[in-house]
Amino acid sequence: MNLDEYNISVDQHADGMFRFILKSIRDEDKARDIVQDSFEKLWRNVENVNYLKVKSYLYTTAYHTMIDLIRREKRKEDFENVDVRDYSHSEHYSDLSEILDEALKRLSDVQRSVILLRDYEGYSYTEIAQITDLTESQVKVYIYRARMHLKNYIGSIESIV
Amino acid sequence: MREITRYNYEEFFLDYLEGTLSSLQRVALEDFLTKNPDLKLELEEMECPVFTKDSVKIDLKSLKEIPFRESFDEFCIARLEGDLSVENEIAFDTFLEKNKSFQKENQIYQKTILHADNSLVFVDKEKLKRSSRKVVYWRYSSRVGVAASIVLLFSLWSILYQFEGNQSNEEKITAKVEATITESKEINKIRKAIDVESITTPKQEVVQPEKKYSVEKRQEQTADNPEDETQVENIEKVVQRVEPVVLSVDAELIALTNSEDPTIELDIPKEENTEISTQNNGLAQLGMSWKSSVPKKKAQNSVLYAIAKYGVDKLGEIAGKNVQLEKKYDSTTEKTRLDFNTAGIGFSKTIK
């Protein structure tokens, strides 16, 4: 990969990576730092990275940096431990995106990451598996569970409204 | 035609039930049953009901039906993710059309698709971009930085050994002081201690109060004896002759004692006394001792670390990149490690 391709990669992927990380950790400064770190690592290895695979490289780097950060801060929150009845005490929502945002918070880190990669970036099971170091089957299971949790959350909120 | 006996009648019974016996065989079988009425009951038991085509009605549609109801959630998600085959997709859509009660559930699943908020953008993209000039500069500076750091570390390492070699300074001090003190050997009767605070350089920091032994205090003890007064003067002479600069090397406290009169004890705590004598036998033989308040090795390490860190930090500034030298304590392994890190190279050393 050459200099021009690197700069094109910045234009093409910086925003998407920022959105993905921001939605995952909900901290703008840290999301920005992770994006910067990822591009810094890319720049250090610019000669060894294939331009055609740069997106995967960037998302993989950003994902692992983010997971390290989450582990350090012990912010892990497992959706399975959340009682669905708690939803009834949630604040009022004005639209679906807010409800989804709230539901997304309640997913486990892995579930949230895989579904964001799937929906935001349109990655296949195989590509998500490569980024997250999971098997395709695991990715599929996580996505199915995440969808079910999101559906249950939306359904419970709608029934209340 | 074979004859029907009690040993082969089952064969004929089955053929009879299947309707494959010839008319002659059937007559022969009826004749046999007349002669063996007990077997007639067995034949009746062997008769099975025969199903005709009209008697059974199979619902072919039910056999082809996919279990959408039983696994509805999975099919909804699979439809959403595009995991269903074309045939199954059509079948599932048809199922939903016919079963309105399932449609609402499916619609909620449709809502779980996340849409990126395009208003969220990374504002500092220009800062992420690079120019070719910087590439060359960075590579050059980083390599120079790494090389300079390594040279610096080796230099500091060699200085460390030099410090260790300078321990002979103590012996020089001993020699000089010995030469001077020999002149005042006549004051052997009373043990004397000299406050060395006054002869140390300003660089020396702390001398603990319990380690101070003033000449004045000793003067009070010897005030009654005129000989003692002359001895005190001799001691002061000794103090003046000792070169302060020489004595200041690594020493915070020097105590001169009369080794020939061991009965009189100094106010030094016993454990410290022992340590001093074992640390420096040459001075102990002369009746002198010194002790740093900081353990020697620790002091060397901390000074070396401070110098190295300063040098590496400065190199990092010159290179414009992150070059680090850090001392870290790992609580899990309970060890202290020295880490050197820069772009492309890094090493770690357990130091304690």
UniProtKB/TrEMBL annotation, chain A:
<keyword id="KW-0805">Transcription regulation</keyword>
<dbReference type="InterPro" id="IPR007627">
    <property type="entry name" value="RNA_pol_sigma70_r2"/>
</dbReference>
<dbReference type="InterPro" id="IPR039425">
    <property type="entry name" value="RNA_pol_sigma-70-like"/>
</dbReference>
<dbReference type="GO" id="GO:0003677">
    <property type="term" value="F:DNA binding"/>
</dbReference>
<dbReference type="Pfam" id="PF04542">
    <property type="entry name" value="Sigma70_r2"/>
</dbReference>
<keyword id="KW-0804">Transcription</keyword>
<dbReference type="InterPro" id="IPR013249">
    <property type="entry name" value="RNA_pol_sigma70_r4_t2"/>
</dbReference>
<dbReference type="InterPro" id="IPR013325">
    <property type="entry name" value="RNA_pol_sigma_r2"/>
</dbReference>
<feature type="domain" description="RNA polymerase sigma factor 70 region 4 type 2">
    <location>
        <begin position="98"/>
        <end position="150"/>
    </location>
</feature>
<dbReference type="InterPro" id="IPR013324">
    <property type="entry name" value="RNA_pol_sigma_r3/r4-like"/>
</dbReference>
<keyword id="KW-0731">Sigma factor</keyword>
<comment type="similarity">
    <text>Belongs to the sigma-70 factor family. ECF subfamily.</text>
</comment>
<protein>
    <submittedName>
        <fullName>RNA polymerase subunit sigma-24</fullName>
    </submittedName>
</protein>
<dbReference type="InterPro" id="IPR036388">
    <property type="entry name" value="WH-like_DNA-bd_sf"/>
</dbReference>
<dbReference type="Pfam" id="PF08281">
    <property type="entry name" value="Sigma70_r4_2"/>
</dbReference>
<keyword id="KW-0238">DNA-binding</keyword>
<dbReference type="GO" id="GO:0016987">
    <property type="term" value="F:sigma factor activity"/>
</dbReference>
<dbReference type="GO" id="GO:0006352">
    <property type="term" value="P:DNA-templated transcription initiation"/>
</dbReference>
<dbReference type="InterPro" id="IPR014284">
    <property type="entry name" value="RNA_pol_sigma-70_dom"/>
</dbReference>
<feature type="domain" description="RNA polymerase sigma-70 region 2">
    <location>
        <begin position="10"/>
        <end position="75"/>
    </location>
</feature>
Automatic annotation (TrEMBL), chain B:
<keyword id="KW-0472">Membrane</keyword>
<feature type="region of interest" description="Disordered">
    <location>
        <begin position="207"/>
        <end position="229"/>
    </location>
</feature>
<feature type="transmembrane region" description="Helical">
    <location>
        <begin position="140"/>
        <end position="160"/>
    </location>
</feature>
<feature type="compositionally biased region" description="Basic and acidic residues">
    <location>
        <begin position="208"/>
        <end position="221"/>
    </location>
</feature>
<protein>
    <submittedName>
        <fullName>Uncharacterized protein</fullName>
    </submittedName>
</protein>
<keyword id="KW-0812">Transmembrane</keyword>
<keyword id="KW-1133">Transmembrane helix</keyword>
